[in-house]
Design a protein that fits this description.
The chain is of the alpha/beta class. Helices cover 30% and strands 22% of the residues.
Length: 385
């Protein structure tokens, strides 16, 4: 069985106000051709198909086109919702289009119900976990069991997987999940998914399956031989300047427990990006900077005094300069800003801390779940506006 593992398309996302829809369409062209040329049996997409809960009309059109073209290749497609997606909207009509070989899995209640594939080696059970927000799915997955956070809900989901697998002797197994697994290297472009200060889950959660196809982290990386992130197909922050974007071709073993072979396929790079640092005159005249004229740039100027019209002058040589900062050499950094103090903290943590500060008592689990739903509603309303 040959799979193609991808994730984190973030259709509709921009890069510092630069529209990326054309680059995302180029990726879809590449993906369809890769499915054909690599003779892929099934494409798995591990969440964050869209960049926001209410995606733009153009993003929805591109996704629709992508699924139509992928279905025409004859490959099966299994796709889950990520933390950026609206599970209900992405999952609309899922039962109706299953028959077409497009399997949208956005309902936490179905984590133990696999999409069944087969080849000459026998059955392959694909268990597709949508993003499992602990405060939202606790009642469904944990019931009266103790524990909270992503580790607890993923353990509960995997218990259902193992229970179902026990009824399928000889079946190989694949899990799709959208999570932050211990050992993964994050970048600046992922939305934090920590809950109660606990975001990372151990890779051992996925023990017992032949392959875990992960989404959420934007750098392609192997947590273990069987637990991997494909990463995003495009760079969405300057922290990803050294990423080598790819999709992963995964050859499953002919029987459960055998070795898994994984090969990256590099995705198209519409425009390289880089972070550069120096004084303005050197950047404008130095030959060593000439290779960056076609890059998206984040520039930090080190001039003792802030130059006039710095961005305009930079763009005369580097027309794709997107971010400009000033850090004069020899000057002590400013006191940490409010934004820096909040960096790495989720919206839910900030809101919960605010309530606790005002009231003088921590929020309880039911209040935390209410806040999580309110924040999701606010994101959807903001996306509409």
């Amino acid at each position: 069985m040959r799979l193609l593992h991808t994730s984190d398309w973030h259709l509709g996302r921009s890069f510092h106000r630069e529209d990326l829809l054309a680059a995302q369409a180029q990726f879809i062209d590449f993906l369809v051709e890769a499915v054909r040329s690599e003779k892929i049996d099934a494409l798995v997409v591990s969440g964050d198909v869209y960049d926001r809960a209410l995606p733009s009309v153009d993003a929805v059109s591109l996704c629709n086109e992508a699924l139509r073209r992928l279905q025409a290749t004859g490959a099966r497609v299994v796709l889950i919702s990520g933390n950026h997606d609206s599970a209900r909207r992405l999952g609309f009509g899922a039962d109706l289009i299953d028959a077409a070989g497009i399997h949208l899995r956005t309902d936490p209640a179905r984590v133990g119900q696999p999409v069944l594939l087969a080849d000459a080696g026998g059955p392959v059970a694909v268990y597709a976990f949508p993003y499992l927000e602990p405060d939202v799915v606790r009642e469904e997955l944990l019931a009266a069991e103790p524990g909270r956070g992503h580790g607890a809900v993923l353990e509960a989901a995997m218990a259902r997987v193992r229970g179902d697998l026990s009824t399928r002797p000889g079946a190989r197994s694949v899990v799709l999940a959208h999570a932050y697994v211990t050992g993964g290297e994050p970048s600046d472009s992922e939305r934090d998914i920590s809950v109660g200060g606990v975001s990372a889950v151990p890779a051992g959660v996925f023990s017992g399956v032949d392959y875990a196809a992960l989404g959420h982290l934007h750098g392609a990386q192997a947590i273990s031989e069987r637990v991997r992130y494909s990463g995003s197909p495009l760079a969405y922050s300057f922290s990803e300047e050294h990423h080598r974007k790819a999709v992963l071709v995964v050859d499953l073993p002919p029987s459960p427990g055998g070795p898994v072979r994984v090969e990256p396929l590099p995705t198209p790079v519409p425009r390289p990006l880089a972070r550069v640092r120096g004084d303005l005159d050197d950047l404008l005249t130095g030959e060593r900077w000439a290779r960056f004229t076609g890059h998206y740039l984040q520039v930090t100027l080190t001039d003792a005094q802030r130059p006039r019209e710095a961005m305009t002058r930079l763009r005369s040589r580097f027309p794709h300069t997107l971010v400009l900062g000033f850090e004069p050499d020899g000057v002590a950094g400013e006191e940490q800003s409010y934004a820096q103090r909040l960096r790495g903290r989720s919206d839910l943590e900030v809101a919960s801390d605010f309530v606790a500060h005002v009231r003088g008592a921590d929020v309880d689990p039911s209040e935390r779940a209410l806040l999580a739903r309110a924040l999701q509603h606010a994101r959807e309303r903001a996306a509409v506006g």
